[in-house]
Amino acid sequence: MPIYEYECEKCGYRFEVRQDFDDEPLTECRNDGCEGPAHRVFSPPTIIFKGSGFYTTDYGPRSSSGRKESSEKSDRSDQATSGSDTDQ
Fold first, then answer.
1. What does the DSSP 8-state code read for residue 86?
2. Pick from 9, 4, 15: which is nearest to 37 by CA?
């Protein structure tokens, strides 16, 4: 059974109700003493795609230049360590 969110138009109270798909939407506020008109609030679901089947550019500010810089830094550190080995 899904949980639906409602908001009162009179007092602004928000509440959640577990209802069947076939149930009629509520029309009255559930706040004590209000009894104002209420409507269902719709919001987009949160979806995060993870795994190897999705593009890495879809999330975050990663850029191809940032990846090149990190690979260049590792190349420089490899050269520095290999150069120190030959000096000994």
1. H
2. 9
- For 15-59, the pLDDT digits (tens) are 999 999 899 999 999 998 898 999 999 988 888 777 766 666 655
User: Where do we find the tokens 């899904």?
Assistant: 2
Compute the distance between CA of residue 4 and CA of residue 14 in angstroms, rounded to an integer.
Answer: 11
> For residue 8, how many C-alpha atoms fall within 13 Å in the half-sphere facing its CB?
15
Amino acid identity for residue 73 in this structure: K
Provide the residue ranges of all domains of the chain, joining segments of one domain with +: 3-41
- Of 9, 6, 10, nearest in space to 25 by CA: 6
Number of H helices, E strands in the chain: 1, 3
Q: What is the pLDDT of residue 68?
A: 47
